[in-house]
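Listing S7. Sequence submitted for prediction.
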Amino acid sequence: MMKDVLYAMNCLCFAIMIGGAVYEHLNVVPVWSSAPPVSLSMFQGPYGLKPELFWKIIHPVNLILFALTLILHWKTGRAGSIGIAFTGYVVILVITFLYFVPSLIAIITATYGEVADADLTRQARLWEQLSLVRLCVLVVLAMVLLTGMARSRDRVTKVTTFKSA
């Protein structure tokens, strides 16, 4: 029973993270990527948008839940789905910290100007397109994780067949 609750919490937390990404892609990214550095004013000043708190909390919680869920379901029919989703998520996090975070910081910390910079706008659009690909991969991983809930939570036992002589 507790294993099922932990698995459900893992799915919920992963879905919340994806929901945050969808929200940002619908409401935040199109604004700041439209005409930087003019459009970056939403991040500046004492009342600027600071989305990093959400991401700094949700990712460690997801990683912990994934690890615990995988450990508890290691020898069950669900381990494959959990392992695939967890591995894919870790790969995406590595790519995020190597490319997406540094690129985003470079773009949104650009000096404010009254005129859109064509090169900065191209960088922002590329970031947005690649981030949408990343989001689609996360959605696929979530579907893999959720399909694991339908698999047996029972321990998998190795079946040995004997050939007759």
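Caption to Listing S7: primary sequence and predicted structure tokens for the chain studied. The mean pLDDT is 91. The first helix runs from residue 2 to 32.
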